[in-house]
Amino acid sequence: MKLDLERVSLEYPNGVRAINQVSCGIDRSERVAIIGPSGAGKTTLLRLLATALRPTAGTLTVLGADPWRASRGELRRLRGRIGMVHQAPPIPPRQRVVTAVLAGRLGQWPAWRSLASLVYPLDMPGAERMLARMEIADKLFERCDQLSGGQLQRVGVARVLYQQPDLILTDEPVSAVDPALSDRIIGELNREAIERGVTLVASLHAVDLALHWFPRVIGVKGGEIAFDLPPVRISDAMLRELYASEMAQVPTQGYQPFETMVPGVRRKPVYF
Amino acid sequence: MRLVHWLVMSVLVAVAWASFGYLSLDLGRLFDREALAQMAKYAISFFPPDLSADYLVRIWQGTLETIAISAIGTVMAAVLGVVLALPAAGRFGAVPRVAARLVLNFLRSIPELVWAALMVMAAGLGPFAGTLGLAWHTAGVIGRLFAETLENASPEPAQALRLSGSRPSIAFLYGTMPNVVPQLIAYSLYRWEINIRMAAILGVVGAGGLGQMLYFSLSLFQQPQAMTVILAMLALVVIVDGASAWLRQRLAG
Amino acid sequence: MAHADSALQPRDPAALPRLALTVLVLALLWPGFSLTEFDPAVLIDGRSRETMGKFVSTFFPLETSPGFLQLVARSTLETLAIATAGTVLAMLLAAPCALVITRSLSISRIGPGPGYWLGRILRLPARFAMMFFRSIPEIVWALLFVRAVGLGPAAGVLAIGVTYGGMLGKVYSEILESNDARPAAALLETGSGRTAAFFYGLWPVALPELVSYTVYRWECAVRASVIMGFVGAGGLGLQMELSMRMLNGGEISTILLVFLLLVMLADAVSAILRKVTA
Q1: Which CATH superfamily is domain C66-276 in?
Q2: Separation CA B14–CA B183 (nearest Å)
Q3: Which of A15, B20, C158, C263 is the most exposed place for a label (fewest CB within 10 A)?
């Protein structure tokens, strides 16, 4: 297993159990979506996988290694192979797009190269290619604080694409983005995972996106896994129960009401 | 006014009276006919100021020296200030933080003039002592401000970079520095403006520039020359004020 | 897909301006190094390092003999007295000037009357005089007064009086002008005279701000008095200068410590006073 959680728990100092004895395995080049109501533990789970948080119980294996038994150097190298797309790109406002994108490979470059790139960007064509995939190649030398929210989000994705990680994690990457753009972003991430044969784990707010793009969907509620199924096997009742606390409506991207599934009709996911 | 106010006022008046008494300052004697006449004679000896070409050239050199003292001193201060600000912002732990803050406080509590006098003791008379004096004091000021800026800077960008495998120092440069460098530069320029005024004065303890020229000319009873130096100081301040106001307007507009 | 198309290689538009700026700054700083006789070797070269180490060690231990401490205590009191007397002198100088400067405005805001034209004639020269007083650094004034009235605290008191008089005058007039004249106007409407209207209407409103700024200036005066002592105007500064001339590091350290404590004390007193009179 590339990614393995074995009875992993995370308990905060105030006693709250964000993740409760979760066991789960994800293979190399699998594409998995994580859905669930707010506060269910989606972000925590993702941050555990990103090695940002340390489990208080259980064993965690990421890319075949236990990050918390590794030496500092090994952990750093491991993290270089993990790319995270955040909900709000953590980029300094005054930084230029080209530098922000090139920062994706800081974990892989030697120190001298990182320093030199600060003064003069060393791989502008590479950055430009990634931005072109996100359709904002013309913003190469703009300052990040002059971009719209959607454009900034695309820069964040371009950075992860440039990093070429073996594990792509995304934490609600499109909840602040309009539906057409979010479709394109999720699509591009899926395409990257398939083309390079790497693992993609995406926590998503909008259920329709998850069901549409991913062959495996994990529902999380109350720090535990509610279900772990391909979309065809997920029924409306399961979804409604998952989001039972959430304002009586299952969240979707376009804020359209979720269509009731007619019993007997199998939902076809999109693979390519 | 309340009773407390009256009490405080009377105490203050008493203290003020006592001060004059302690100094055995008889303002009346200070301003009596003879003293006033003497002061008037001294004041008149300053005019007309010496505006000969030779002396103006020396004044020009003194002004350049003053500006150089302030510029080099501020640059040194910025470098030292940044170096001290990193531990002072807690980047290397709690103990270095306390130690660095103590050093910064020590540096900025001692006025520039006192530092300059100490540096004259250490490095001899001349502009280098003035440069060092300015540098030590200003380093304390800039360092403290920069430490606070660093502590308030948002940690997310650097954290995200560390999570993708970057070394902490590189993550700092790419993630935190872009947020704080503009403020640092702006504040250093502001301090430089203040330091130009300071550099002009430091010379009175032998630290070079216009101040040293003033001290010498007064000691040698060359009042017209001293007057020229004072006029040069005033002109320098006016020009610097004007230039910085103009620059600020251009950058903001 | 990997080979770079050099023809399509983008060029960083910010590179040239950045380079130009860096070169410019360096070019401007370079002559500064020779102008300031920049010579770090003086501080750190082999032979000098010994001197530097010895230099720093001369500052320890602090000089604590009773005779010296008494001298320092007297000098501290002298510095406080210079600062206080100087601030009082500054107030005496600033108050009439401020009134002259603002009288035409505040009185005319309250209501017309005699004294208006006198105020207007004196306004410009008063403004100019105060600007002159505060533009020349206080230490230059100290130097001048030392030459005029001799070494000692008198020069310090006069120097502070003159410089701070200029500053106080300007700020007083600003405070008076910016404060609400309506209480005074109300008094006028109910029939009181103009002076009474001023003193019972405008003055109490402006007083807390005036006091606050004056106390703040006193705190600055304490520091300035020490610095002016360096050029002979008495107090701690004069003592420190004497100790420096004799290269007595221990005495310098003691005086420095006392200075730091004094500044903290003045800061505390100033904070308390401003709270009480607010």
Answers
A1: MetI-like (1.10.3720.10)
A2: 47
A3: A15
Domain B53-252: CATH class, spelled out: mainly alpha
Domain spans in chain B, listed from the N-terminal domain onward: 3-44, 53-252
Residues 6+ apart with CB under 8 A from C43: B122, B123, C52
Residues of chain C with pLDDT > 70, as a percent, come to 81
Kindly report which listed range (B71-75, B231-235, C204-208) carries the lowest average pLDDT score. Answer: C204-208
Q: Using H for helix, E for strand and C for coil, what is the string for chain C? A: CCCCCHHHCCCCCCHHHHHHHHHHHHHHHHHHHHHCCCCCHHHHCHHHHHHHHHHHHCCCCCCCCHHHHHHHHHHHHHHHHHHHHHHHHHHHHHHHHHHHHHHHHHHHHHCCCCCHHHHHHHHHHHHHHHHHHHHCCHHHHHHHHHHHHCCCHHHHHHHHHHHHHHHHHHHHHHHHHHCCCHHHHHHHHCCCCHHHHHHHHHHHHHHHHHHHHHHHHHHHHHHHHHHHHCCCCCHHHHHHHHHHHCCCHHHHHHHHHHHHHHHHHHHHHHHHHHHHCC
Which residues of C have a CB under 8 Å from any CB of A?
A: 4-5, 8-15
> What does CATH list as the number for A1-75+203-272?
3.40.50.300
Q: How high is the ipTM of this complex?
A: 0.85
Nearest CB to B165; choose among A79, A86, A115: A79
User: How far does B184 lie from chain C, in Å, by closest CA?
Assistant: 16
Chains near A with 3+ CB pairs less than 8 A apart are: B, C
| Contact flag B175-A92 (C-beta cutoff 8 Å) | yes
The verdict on a CB contact (< 8 Å) between C81 and B22 is yes
Report the predicted TM-score, pTM, of the whole model to 2 decimal places.
0.83
**Domain residues of chain A, as ranges?**
1-75+203-272
